[in-house]
Design brief:
- By secondary structure, this protein is mainly alpha-helical.
- It has a single domain, classed as Serine Threonine Protein Phosphatase 5, Tetratricopeptide repeat.
- The chain contains 19 helices and 6 strands.
- The protein has helices at 2-17, 38-56, 58-63, 77-80, 90-111, 118-139, 161-179, 201-222, 272-277, 287-291, 296-304, 310-313, 364-377, 385-399, 404-413, 422-436, 443-453, 479-484, 486-491; strands at 67-69, 142-143, 158-159, 257-259, 292-294, 359-362.
- The chain has a two-stranded antiparallel ribbon.
- The relative contact order is 0.15.
- Residues 1-34 have low confidence and may be disordered.
């Protein structure tokens, strides 16, 4: 399996090269071998995904109330005061997502030439959709229809974000159709470092079909507020929701989508979360563990609700302080009362199993919560929202190493508001999904929920020098776009973007 990690290293090198001014087309990856196999391409591209979620999205983990800063380390103004620019976070996110999308696009082209490799082609289409979903959620309008054509189009136009989402739904449908109802052809097997251990090509590709359906559902859910009346939690059913399967337990993910390309306790092969937030390959505290500590918001949320997941999500403090107990976080933006490592919580035991533990792409819990919200909103006409809500909570408990019995006890104290309003039901679902996203797994998705619904009520920075009392709404396009694609960058309004009032197309909040 080590050969798959080597492909990841190649992709990492490519993302660095993307910052060069003469890199006119971000769809070109000059460091990829000109000749490779679909097997190696698939393994390498999948293996790189966790690096994006764990390392590139730390800002969203902070803005979503999961992580804060460590005492003794100077908090950066870019995060605590929102003084970020087009050189702060955007370049690595943009470059890494486009590099990854390039690799999946190359996989699609290579595998489409051999009918027996249609499963590779379908996986490439699904994961390319994942990359572009993330690009839109970070930057709104981005190059899409003219991307990946460097020989003819050096300066790709920026497509409208809503149109990209619409086409992503079509691409996911096409990938599902390509897999078919009775999957056949060459099994990706070991090169599929997410579902390849399912046992056979039928089981493996059915999991990919479920993942694709869940991904399409997530796209539709994020469009839920478009067209909603002011103050309403319910908007009209978007076109993306048309034809979604019933919530019958077989169409969407019911198992965790986990990636493991053969992690090992050595440099560059260790699980990226473990190596960053727990211990590195030499047994020293990871670099992220020395900089980021628990955010008081999420610690207090779990404490106040007597949530047993607290001890799984976060580590106990080394030195308890009076009235704070065994778990403590720093207040976001507070540079005066900030405490250091021994007084604050870090990554909990559920995320600190071993340097070879699998990385998360999507948990079954998220799938159940998406389905529950879709039932409440009328996107799915069958299924029971209360049942799906309970399944989501139970799935999260089980992933964290707790028992189904503990989940049952928790649900008895925190039941789904069956008789409540639709708004109350959606708020309850998102509240549970927020806990399931905890601790560096996918801060972007939690931040997406906040941006589209204002749930939960995330705290803004208390730093008196903060540029706003509101959390940011989006990132800038990277400086490389202003330099290498200036005409299209200008046409997309790149020079007039506001950190706080420019919004992703599905973010319809007012008063920002």
């Amino acid at each position: 399996m080590k050969k798959y990690i080597l492909i990841t290293a190649i992709i990492l090198a490519a993302s660095v090269s993307g910052c060069k001014k003469d890199f006119l087309s971000l769809e070109v990856n000059p460091n990829l071998p000109s000749v490779t196999t679909p097997q190696l391409s698939l393994a390498g591209a999948l293996a790189f995904v966790p690096n994006i979620e764990v390392n590139d999205y730390i800002i969203y983990d902070i803005w979503s109330g999961y992580w804060s800063w460590n005492g003794g380390v100077v908090p950066p103004a870019s995060i605590f005061q929102y003084q970020f620019t087009n050189t702060s976070f955007s370049p690595p996110i943009w470059n890494d997502l486009y590099t990854n999308a390039t690799n999946f696009n190359n996989l699609i082209i290579a595998s489409s030439k051999d009918a027996s490799l249609h499963n590779f082609q379908a996986i490439g289409m699904i994961m390319k959709a994942w990359d572009f979903e993330n690009l839109v959620d970070n930057f709104n309008d981005v190059p899409y229809s003219q991307a990946f054509q460097p020989s003819t189009i050096l300066f790709p136009k920026y497509d409208k974000a809503a149109a990209i989402y619409t086409d992503l739904g079509k691409q996911l449908d096409a990938a599902i159709a390509l897999i078919g109802t009775a999957p056949s052809g060459t099994a990706p097997g070991n090169s599929d470092v997410m579902f390849g251990k399912a046992g056979d090509v039928v089981a493996e590709m059915k999991l990919w079909t479920r993942f694709a359906q869940t991904l399409k559902l997530r796209l539709a859910i994020k469009e839920s507020q478009i067209g909603a009346s002011p103050g309403s939690i319910l908007g009209p059913i978007p076109a993306l929701a048309a034809g979604l399967p019933a919530a019958d337990g077989s169409a969407y993910l019911t198992t965790d989508a986990l990636i493991n390309p053969g992690y090992a306790n050595t440099a560059n092969q260790i699980n990226p979360y473990y190596g960053g937030f727990v211990f590195d390959a030499n047994g020293n505290p990871g670099a992220n563990a020395q900089v980021y500590r628990a955010n008081a918001y999420s610690i207090n949320l779990l404490k106040n609700n007597n949530d047993p997941r607290l001890a799984q999500e976060f580590s106990a403090v080394q030195t308890p302080l009076p009235a704070t107990g065994n778990y403590r976080g720093n207040v976001f933006g507070d540079a005066v009362n900030i405490l250091g490592t021994q007084f604050t919580s870090g990554a909990g035991p559920a995320y600190s199993i071993s340097p070879t533990q699998s990385s998360i792409l999507m948990l079954a819990a998220e799938s159940y919560f998406l389905q529950a919200e879709a039932v409440v909103r009328g996107y799915i006409t069958t299924g029971n929202a209360a049942t799906l809500y309970a399944q989501g909570v139970t799935a999260d408990f089980l992933y964290l190493g707790l028992s189904a019995g503990q989940a049952t006890t928790y649900l008895a104290a925190n039941p789904f508001p069956t008789t409540g309003s639709q708004g109350a039901q959606i708020q309850a679902i998102i509240g549970q999904k927020y806990v399931a996203f905890l601790n560096g797994y996918d801060g972007l998705q939690a931040f997406n929920d906040y941006r589209r619904t204002s749930f939960p009520a995330l705290p803004s920075s208390v730093d008196p020098a903060a540029a706003s009392t509101h959390l940011p709404s989006r990132l800038f396009y990277p400086i490389t776009e202003a330099q290498s694609n200036p005409v299209q960058y200008a046409a997309a309004g790149g020079a007039t973007i506001s950190r706080f009032t420019s919004q992703i197309f599905w973010d319809t909040r007012t008063g920002l």
